[in-house]
Structures are given as structure tokens and as C-alpha cells.
């Protein structure tokens, strides 16, 4: 996006934003490693090898609560450097069942047209109220001390995004401003270059002034979104995470980089090499597994289909396929496809053999055939759709969804799947992301009420963060 803004406007915005700025910080020293957990880890053992923990406040969507927040925060607080928190984000539009502004109201931003996907004021208000609700959830469960910790905005495609890039960025600005206004001194962004680009259009230091110019009639940011420290998502090794510390998708510095530590997410504080080589994760007593996953708020989740349990495989499922993992992790950013191999040079023909007498030569040595250029087809970056998708009534409770991994991975392993669900054909919305590292996967949905028919689709997500097309729709009636 081109940056064509009057200098006076740039200076005015810079003064306003800088006025609310505070120094960014991370709670643990450089080179320290820790882990992040949330609702998918309810009922599972938590690690003891890390020196800090980051805990999800929400249950996968804005306005929902992680039912194990208190227990997981207690675990993280017991580490050497304590606990930080992260919250879900989104911009579902007027279909939101949590909150959406009325046209012509200012709450706190001016929402001009609630039905417009490009209305930045309406989107800002959604993010702001979502941030306020996450603060309420955390304070009710953990006390007022949570404001002294670092908080992170979880920005992933698996959340609900129905706005234009500028409106989506406005929603994130609203969430940031709500947390800052609530007393949180340090707020960062968790995402990948690919997902950030898809959601916000690549909002960064180079174009932030243009975005703010478009937002000016609706609201003025309290803190520069592009200055927030970054937590780079990843699925590879701690060494790869260390390299990711040198990347940025907004122009701000990377403070954390994620990696895979067995079945859990490990995190490295950027700025130095890991202080220790992570060892296989040992465990402490599991957090209490709740009987229900109900939000602490009386309002419904942002999805049009409100899940009452986490999007993670239940231990009671007995599928005919290999059980799936319960850990949900974020994708790494995409990379460009491999370039075409340059053609090899043409082989020069050999010279004609000179005659040995006055008799004309009977033939000449034929030139060798020109070598044909060799080419390679760039590997696609998007995985294919899952196959053999079925939905069946579980004999005990709910619906069992099964599928097979796509043959086309998009050049990177497929270990996660976006689950979409609806109560009518063609009306599926994102329910969450499920981790499955095997060729066949199964998940039981126990949140659909008995007698209700639910409709499902599944989309594959590879380790580069690219999401493929949805599978054909399947449905079943819950028991």
C-alpha cells in the first residue's frame, strides 16, 4: 500500500500515539525458554523444564473463558520468571453474538455502518470490548495482579475475520487500546508473516500512517500497534526459533519465538542463544479437567455456533484411526516457492572432420544435440483439502468427525486442521484448530445438543501457516 499522507497529519498522529507509549518489555531474560498453554491442555500434565509460562485467557474465541485459567496460571506463576497471558482476537462483523455496535453510535469509536465490512469504527469497538472482557475474565479468576504481566494478542486465521484488512487491523487496535487503558503496560502481538498479511493486509511501520488516516474520523489510537513487540509463531526446533528472532512482520522487534517441544509449544526469549538445550518435557500434575467449558461472561462466543467445549480431541473418543494430539500450535510463516532451475547451456557442435585426400569426405561428424533446458515446477504453498471426511452419530454422546490428511501438503507438513461447524447447510464458521500429526484423524464434538443436526467442513493447515480449501460438507445428528 502506498504511503501518501500529508506531513502535518503524520506528525499529528505521531504525537498522539507517542503520548501514550511506554517501554516494551518481556518478563524473562534473553535466551530463556518456557512454554505456552491454554484450554486444549486442560486435563493434561504441564511441563516443569521451562522458566516461564504464557497462559491463554480465552477458550478459543473472544468473550469465552479458558476453564483451566486459574490452575494453568498457578503453574506458570511457579516458574522462575512467572506467568504472562494471551487473548484471542477477531472481527466477525454484524453476525457477532458477543457484541457489535449499532450504526451511528460511538462506543468508544464511531460506528457509521454496522453492516459494512470496511467500517473501522465498528471493528475497533468489537476489539475494544473483547479486550475489556478478557481483562474482566482474568481479574475475576486471577486478581488485579495480572496487569503487571506482559499480555499478547493472538492473531490467527482460525479466529473470526470477516472485515477488510484495514477494519481487521482496527479491531486489533481496539483490543490493544482496551488492554493499555486497563492498566496493562506491555502488550505484544503473536502471529506469523503469512497470517498477519492475510488478516491486516500487512500493516507495518511503513504504512501505519495510511491506516490511521483512514481511521481518523472514527477513532484515534492510544498506542502504536506497529510498535508492539512480536511473538513469532513456529513449529520447528529451538534453533529455528532463534533464527526467527531476527524476523519481523510489522517492523517491530521480535521478543519471543515459538518452537515445538514434543507435544507442547516451547518459547524462546529473543536476544541471546538459548541458555540451556531444551530436554524432553517432564510433567507436573495435570490441571483439573472441567466438566463444561462455559464462558464466564453471560454472552455467547463470537462464532455463530457457540462451542461449549474446547476444540480438542476428547480422551473418551475411541476412533478406528490413530488418536490425535490435543496441543494446538500456531503456524510458521509461508515462504516463496522454489525458483525454476536455469536451463543448462547449449553444447557446442564438434567441428567437421577434414578430408584426408582430394576426394570429398563422405560425411561430417554431426553436431551433438542441444541439451533441453531442465525445469522444476514450483511447489504449491497451499495444502489440498482433507479427504474421506465423515460425520457420524457417536453411540454415547455427540458427533464423531473423521478425515484423512491431504496428499498435497503445499511443500510443508500438515499437522493442524481448521474445524468449521454450522447448524444449516453452507453456514459453517470456524470453531477452532485441531492438531493431528497422523495420516488419519478423529475428533468428537460433544457440544452439539442431542437431536440437533450439525454440519461440518475441515481445512488443512501446513507448518508454513497456509490454509487449504475446505472439504466437502458432511453432517450428522448428535445423540
From TrEMBL:
Q: Which keywords appear in this protein's UniProt record, sorted alphabetically?
A: Carbohydrate metabolism, Glycosidase, Hydrolase, Polysaccharide degradation, Signal
Q: Which GO terms describe its molecular function?
A: hydrolase activity, acting on glycosyl bonds
Which CDD domains is this protein grouped with? Answer: FN3
- Tell me the domain of life: Bacteria
Concerning InterPro entries, the annotation shows: FN3_dom (IPR003961), FN3_sf (IPR036116), GH (IPR017853), Ig-like_fold (IPR013783)
- Keyword Signal assigned: yes
Disordered: where is this region?
281-392
Signal peptide coordinates: 1-23
Record keywords: Signal included? Answer: yes
GO biological process terms on file: polysaccharide catabolic process
Q: Give residue ranges for domain Fibronectin type-III.
A: 382-479
Q: What is this protein called?
A: Fibronectin type-III domain-containing protein
Species of provenance: Actinomycetospora corticicola
Amino acid at each position: 500500500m502506498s504511503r501518501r499522507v500529508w506531513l502535518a497529519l503524520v506528525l499529528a498522529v505521531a504525537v498522539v500515539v507517542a503520548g501514550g507509549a511506554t517501554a516494551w518489555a518481556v518478563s524473562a531474560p534473553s535466551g530463556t525458554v518456557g512454554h505456552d498453554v491454554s484450554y486444549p491442555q486442560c486435563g493434561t500434565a504441564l511441563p516443569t523444564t521451562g522458566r516461564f509460562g504464557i497462559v491463554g485467557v480465552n477458550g478459543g474465541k473472544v468473550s469465552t473463558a479458558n476453564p483451566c485459567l486459574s490452575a494453568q496460571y498457578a503453574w506458570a506463576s511457579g516458574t522462575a520468571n512467572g506467568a504472562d497471558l494471551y487473548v484471542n482476537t477477531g472481527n466477525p462483523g454484524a453476525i457477532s453474538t458477543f457484541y457489535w455496535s449499532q450504526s451511528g453510535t460511538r462506543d468508544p469509536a464511531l460506528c457509521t455502518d454496522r453492516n459494512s465490512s470496511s467500517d473501522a469504527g465498528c471493528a475497533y469497538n468489537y476489539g475494544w470490548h473483547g479486550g475489556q472482557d478478557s481483562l474482566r475474565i482474568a481479574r475475576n479468576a486471577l486478581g488485579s495482579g495480572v496487569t503487571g504481566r506482559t499480555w499478547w494478542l493472538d492473531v490467527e486465521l482460525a479466529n473470526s475475520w470477516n472485515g477488510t484488512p484495514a477494519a481487521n487491523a482496527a479491531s486489533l487496535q481496539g483490543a490493544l487500546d482496551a488492554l493499555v487503558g486497563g492498566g496493562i503496560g506491555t502488550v505484544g502481538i503473536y502471529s506469523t508473516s503469512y497470517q498477519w498479511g492475510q488478516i491486516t493486509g500487512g500493516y507495518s511501520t511503513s504504512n501505519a500512517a495510511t491506516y490511521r488516516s483512514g481511521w481518523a474520523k472514527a477513532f484515534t489510537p492510544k498506542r502504536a500497534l506497529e510498535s508492539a513487540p512480536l511473538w513469532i509463531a513456529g513449529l520447528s526446533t529451538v534453533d529455528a526459533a532463534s533464527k526467527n528472532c531476527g524476523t519481523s512482520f510489522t517492523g517491530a522487534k521480535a521478543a519471543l519465538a515459538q518452537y515445538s517441544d514434543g507435544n507442547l509449544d516451547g518459547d524462546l526469549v529473543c536476544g541471546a542463544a538459548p541458555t540451556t538445550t531444551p530436554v524432553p518435557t517432564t510433567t507436573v500434575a495435570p490441571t483439573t479437567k472441567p466438566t463444561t467449558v462455559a464462558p464466564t461472561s453471560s454472552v455467547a462466543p463470537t462464532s455463530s455456533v457457540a462451542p461449549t467445549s474446547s476444540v480438542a480431541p476428547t480422551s473418551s473418543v475411541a476412533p478406528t484411526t490413530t488418536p490425535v494430539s490435543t496441543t494446538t500450535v500456531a503456524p510458521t510463516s509461508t515462504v516463496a516457492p522454489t525458483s525454476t532451475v536455469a536451463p543448462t547451456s547449449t553444447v557446442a557442435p564438434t567441428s567437421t572432420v577434414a578430408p584426408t585426400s582430394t576426394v570429398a569426405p563422405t560425411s561430417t561428424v554431426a553436431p551433438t544435440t542441444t541439451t533441453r533446458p531442465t525445469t522444476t515446477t514450483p511447489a504449491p504453498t497451499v495444502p489440498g483439502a482433507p479427504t474421506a471426511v465423515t460425520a457420524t452419530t457417536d453411540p454415547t454422546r455427540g458427533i464423531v468427525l473423521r478425515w484423512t490428511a491431504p496428499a498435497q501438503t503445499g511443500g510443508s507438513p500438515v499437522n493442524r486442521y481448521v474445524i468449521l461447524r454450522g447448524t444449516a447447510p453452507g453456514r459453517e464458521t470456524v470453531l477452532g484448530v485441531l492438531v493431528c500429526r497422523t495420516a488419519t484423524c478423529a475428533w468428537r464434538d460433544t457440544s452439539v445438543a442431542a437431536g440437533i443436526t450439525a454440519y461440518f467442513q475441515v481445512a488443512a493447515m501446513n507448518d508454513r501457516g497456509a490454509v487449504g480449501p475446505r472439504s466437502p460438507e458432511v453432517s450428522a445428528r448428535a445423540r
